[in-house]
Amino acid sequence: MLPLEHLQTTMARSVLAMEPVVAANMLTAGKADPLARLRIYQNNTRSSLTAALMAVFPVTVRLVDERFFRFAASEFIRRHPPVESRLARYGAGFPRFLKAIDTLSDMPIVAETARLEWAIAEALDTASLPPRSLAEYNNTDLGLSPDILLQPSLRLIVSHWSILSVWMAHQQETAVDQNSIWARRPERVALWRSGNYVRLFLLDRASFAFWHSLKHGFGLEHATGRALALDPAFDLVSALVRLFRDRLVTNVRVAADSPSN
Amino acid sequence: MPTKFSPFTIPESAGIGLRSPHIAEMLTRRPSAGWLEVHAENYMGDGAGVEALERLRQIYPLSVHGVGLSLGSAQGLDRDHLEKLRKVCERFQPDLVSEHLAWSVADGAYLNDLLPLRYDEEALAIVARNVETVQDALKRQVLIENLSAYLAFADSSMNEAEFLAELAARTGCGLLLDVNNVHVSAHNLQYDAKAFIDALPADAIGEIHLAGHATNRVGADTVLIDDHGSRVPPVVWTLYRHAIERLGPRPTLIEWDTDVPILDVLLGEAMWADMLTASIMFNRKQAARQSQPTEARSTPICLAVESETTTSMPVLAAFAAARCARPSMSAVLPSIEEEYHAAA
Q1: Is A97 a residue whose pLDDT tops 70?
Q2: pTM, entire model
Q3: Chain A residues within 8 A of B48 when measuring between CB atoms
Q4: Which of A141, A173, B62, B284 is deepest in the core (most CB within 10 A)?
């Protein structure tokens, strides 16, 4: 008789590999065929995890057709099953998996859109902190280059492809002319959670660099320098007003000594 | 700093499983529901659902039901997951916490399904150790739920009910009796569902689950699938009646996870569970009264059986009348179900 851990390992491999590794004489199912019953567990695992991926990547499903998505998801599940039981965290590796599929090699927009959808899923699972207003700092000496902390759900994505245009076009139920919206055109996307929803914006190069520096804690001076290097006409005041207006600022504080704090 | 919630006690009446399509309506309408149960794993992040649940927790008693701890894993518990469960309990301060007698993690993979154990002494020692670890971490008793199964292991040396009874005795855990799971497993593995319920220690059962299931036919095999995707069927209500007659009222949850209907359908199912329990307790009182001598019945003495329950509903008279008209409660079920359907 197998030790329990060995038995469970064998069962898990049978369930994931979608073919029985476990010996039939170890199982019982009344008068039914136990290996047929084992297939119920195989189907449950595959179908429930596929459904979880389809919920996270709905636009990707539409881009490749549901049948192909199910095939790709099934392969992904078999090779990269979840390692934890919080399914909100399952799917981080799916965009890279799609990128490596030969059939999709001439459709890079698919994996790139999946990358955007994963960022949306991450943002939806992240806290939304109370926003701060500019007026709160009227009488506060923040030094020459304060740190500006932004919402933790903020995600910044740059792609060589028109991912936000594709994503937006698929938010309606109407048919989408794929060819008219796919374009090799850099798009820099900012997204963050706002209540039950995610807000998405396209940013120009300078604004993207500005937001990116702030998000990674490099402080206002560094962020401004990066933005001005890309666009000498970068308007710092407007950029700051926008951050507060979009309720993205969660704290402003005197910068620590280290520029990489 | 966690919010301090009022310490609601979950009543011995019906509640509903909170599902995301209903959250907004629950917040605005605040319907009468005895209590709510949520899946712990859905509230381990920091999404909008977590904020909504904090608001609902101020209104409703709450039960936290884990589906991913894999108490039956021989490799032991995922300590990170247990810590997340502890934080969920700290955050929402539930009145009940439950998990499953199952395993879902092995060989480094999470299967997103609840698999059965080989019921033997080795598994009992492993599960008991894992349950004790959970109870120590949460500093509270947890309820362990019986499983819906499609197969079993030939080398099991005891049945699931015996395993659960011994687990409760060893660890002090409570039990969550899923009546639909009993029916599904009893059909699929061909054993007596009522005998299963009767073999469990009644005092340990702190909660009951009710749900629907699907019927699949593959060749000569008719297998019941525990999909939580339909109303509680008459056969499960009948088994619930058997459980309540033996146990008395228990907190009872209506579970619905696939093809989730409008909220009123869940509330209707919960109401039906309350009415069925109330009718059983009413009949029990009537029977106790009738067994008393005539002079004793005329005096307003509080009978011992009355103190067993606080269940009291205005519909009792209607039930008494219905019972006179139709001696079998299960016989009136179809018409009640049709009425719900029309209302939905």
Answers
A1: yes
A2: 0.87
A3: 124, 128, 193, 195-196
A4: B62
Q: Is the domain covering A129-261 a CATH 3.90.930 domain?
A: yes
Domain chopping of chain A, boundaries: 1-125, 129-261
Nearest-CA distance B113 → chain A (Å): 6
At residue A111, the pLDDT reads 97
Residue B243's CB: how many other CB atoms inside 10 A? Answer: 25
B295 touching A (Cβ < 8 Å): no
Over residues B15-44, the mean pLDDT reads 96
Q: Is B322 exposed, middle or buried (CB count within 10 Å of its CB: 0-12, 13-18, 19+)?
A: middle
The order of strands in the sheet holding A187-194 is: A155-159, A187-194, A197-203
B110 in contact with A, Cβ within 8 Å: yes
Alpha helices by DSSP H, listed for A126-261, are: 163-169, 178-181, 205-215, 219-230, 236-245
* pLDDT single digits (tens) B79-102: 999 999 999 999 999 999 999 999
Beta partners for residue A147, in sequence order: A253
Question: HSE (CB half, 13 Å, CA atoms) of A256?
Answer: 7
Which tokens is A77 given? 């599940």
Instruction: Express each pLDDT in A183-216 by its tens digit.
Output: 788 999 999 999 889 999 999 999 999 999 999 9
B14-280 CATH pick, 3.30.70.270, 3.20.20.150, 4.10.400.10, 2.60.40.3360:
3.20.20.150
